[in-house]
Write a structure and sequence with these properties.
2 domains; Arc Repressor Mutant, subunit A; single chain; mainly alpha; two-stranded antiparallel ribbon; about 75% helix; 2 strands; Four Helix Bundle (Hemerythrin (Met), subunit A)
C-alpha cells in the first residue's frame, strides 16, 4: 500500500507541475486527494524522503527536492570559474598521475593533437574555443586513466556557461604561463612520469583559472 501511495504522490507532483522547493499538500490534504489513509500517506512520504525525492521539515511540511538532473542543471547554470576550478583541482592531479602510468603511444599522440589545437586557439585569442579544447584535453586524461566518473564530471563542467562568459581578453603573459605549463604536462604524460604530471596538472589548472579570471593570482594557486 505504501508503494502505491508513493507512486500516487509522485503522479500528483507531476500532474500539478509542483516546482522544485515548493511545499507539498499536507498529509491530511494528500489523504483526501488520493484516497489513502493518513498513515499510508505518512509512510509514503518517508519513503520518498529516503529516496531523496522530497525533504521533510519538522513543523513545516514536505518540500520537493531537485532531481539529479535538476541539480546538475542548476550547477551548470550557476557555477563560476572558481567553482569549476576548485572541483578540477580536487581530482585532476590524481587523474593525471594515473593517466601517465597508462599513457601509450596512441594516447600520447591524441593528447599532442589536442595540445596543438589548444595552441592555435591561444594564438588566435579565441577564449571560448580555448576553454572547450582544454576541457577536452582533461576529458582525455580521465579516459586514459579509466576514470569514467571524472570524465562525466568534466563533461558537465564543459557545459557551464559562466566559463566561456568569463573568458574575455586574454593577457599575453598569462597565455604564455599557461601554455608553458600545459606543454610541460604533456611531456610528463608522454614520459609516463606520474609524480611530475600530477604537479604540473595542478599548476596548469591554476594558470587556466588565472587566464580566465584576471582577479585570480596564479601564484596563489601553484607558488
Amino acid at each position: 500500500m505504501g508503494h502505491d501511495c508513493a507512486d500516487a504522490i509522485s503522479d500528483l507532483i507531476h500532474q500539478q507541475h509542483v516546482a522544485v522547493g515548493a511545499r507539498l499538500p499536507s498529509e491530511r490534504e494528500l489523504a483526501a486527494l488520493l484516497g489513502f489513509s493518513r498513515s499510508s500517506v505518512r509512510e509514503a512520504l518517508v519513503a520518498l524522503a529516503a529516496q531523496g525525492r522530497i525533504e521533510i521539515r519538522e513543523r513545516s511540511g514536505c518540500y520537493l527536492r531537485p532531481t539529479r538532473t535538476d541539480a546538475w542543471r542548476q550547477l551548470r547554470e550557476t557555477a563560476s570559474v572558481a567553482d569549476v576550478a576548485a572541483a578540477l583541482h580536487a581530482v585532476v592531479p590524481h587523474v593525471a598521475s594515473e593517466a601517465a602510468a597508462r599513457c601509450g603511444s596512441d594516447h600520447a599522440n591524441r593528447l599532442e593533437v589536442l595540445t596543438a589545437r589548444l595552441g592555435r586557439h591561444l594564438v588566435d585569442r579565441d577564449a571560448p574555443a580555448l576553454v572547450g579544447e582544454f576541457l577536452a584535453f582533461l576529458r582525455m586524461l580521465a579516459k586514459v586513466a579509466r576514470s569514467p566518473f571524472v570524465e562525466l564530471m568534466i563533461a558537465e563542467a564543459s557545459a557551464a556557461p559562466h566559463l566561456t562568459a568569463a573568458a574575455g581578453e586574454l593577457e599575453k603573459s598569462r597565455i604564455e604561463a599557461f601554455f608553458a605549463l600545459h606543454v610541460g604536462l604533456l611531456h610528463a604524460l608522454q614520459a609516463r612520469d606520474g609524480r611530475r604530471a600530477a604537479t604540473l596538472a595542478s599548476h596548469c589548472l591554476g594558470a587556466f583559472e588565472a587566464l580566465l579570471d584576471p582577479s585570480t593570482s596564479e601564484r596563489s594557486r601553484y607558488a
